[in-house]
Amino acid sequence: MNKLVVGLGNPGRKYSKSKHNIGYMCVDAFAQMKKLKFAKESKFFGEIAILGHALFLKPKTFMNLSGNSVKAVSDFFKIDPAHILVISDDIDLPMRKLRLREKGGSGGHNGLKSIISQLGTDTFKRCRIGIDRDLDMDPKEHVLSDFSKKEIKELETVFSLTNQIVDDFISDVDFDLTMNRFNGSLET
């Protein structure tokens, strides 16, 4: 394995449709498109699927400890952080807006903070997906709230784009080209 794609989320039915689980949803959409099956791997604290030289991971440690799972997989398979793509939600981006970066801080996202801490570097790639901010709701409550039926329909476009982003990533397309193609707002 020389590529790792991580979808962030929280385990359990309670969180399955929550905004914080957009990372899980994206890797699930990719797995469905490629007919991949995830299997539990306790030594990796998560579920994994394999496609060629790429490994897909859904950490099952809860968001704040996602780094434990990512580190276990990257250490075991000797995957360089520069060959890791993490897909997560971003409360500071408008709904459906994508932001791809090659490195950077956590932006206050506890899953990213945990990964940076465990890997000891911020030089992994990331795809952040806007979930908007509800000014009438505590941010913690907002990220753990479920997507509305309307928002779930809108996510089909997000999944189509993240499928292309993941395909580019595992096919060794230059990440600068991928960022140029996909950074920005989606048409409404």
Give keywords.
188 residues; alpha/beta; 7 strands
| Overall shape | globular
- Whole-number average pLDDT? 92
Number of strands: 7
Helix content: 25-40%
CATH architecture: 3-Layer(aba) Sandwich
- Most strands sheet: 7 strands, mixed
Residue ranges: pLDDT <50 for 5 or more in a row? none
Structural class category: alpha/beta
Tally of separate domains: 1
Q: What's the name of the CATH homologous superfamily?
A: Peptidyl-tRNA hydrolase
* Strand arrangement across the biggest beta sheet: 2-3-4-1-5-7-6
Number of helices: 6
At the fold tier of CATH, the topology name is: Rossmann fold
Order of helices and strands: EHEEEHEEHEHHH
CATH top-level class: Alpha Beta
Short structural description:
By secondary structure, the chain is α/β, with parallel strands linked by helices.
Can you describe this structure?
The protein has 188 residues and is an alpha/beta fold. It has a single domain (3-182), classed as Rossmann fold (3-Layer(aba) Sandwich). Helix content is 38%, strand content 20%. The protein contains six helices and seven strands; from the N terminus they run βαβββαββαβααα. The chain has helices at residues 22-34, 66-77, 110-119, 139-144, 149-170, 175-182, and strands at 3-7, 39-41, 46-51, 54-59, 84-90, 98-101, 125-130. Strands 2-3-4-1-5-7-6 form a seven-stranded mixed sheet, sandwiched between helices. A hairpin with a 4-residue loop joins strand 2 and strand 3. Helix 1 packs across helix 5 and helix 2 (66-77) runs parallel beside helix 3 (110-119). The longest helix has 22 residues, at 149-170. It starts with a strand and ends in a 6-residue tail after the last helix. The relative contact order is 0.19. The mean pLDDT is 92.
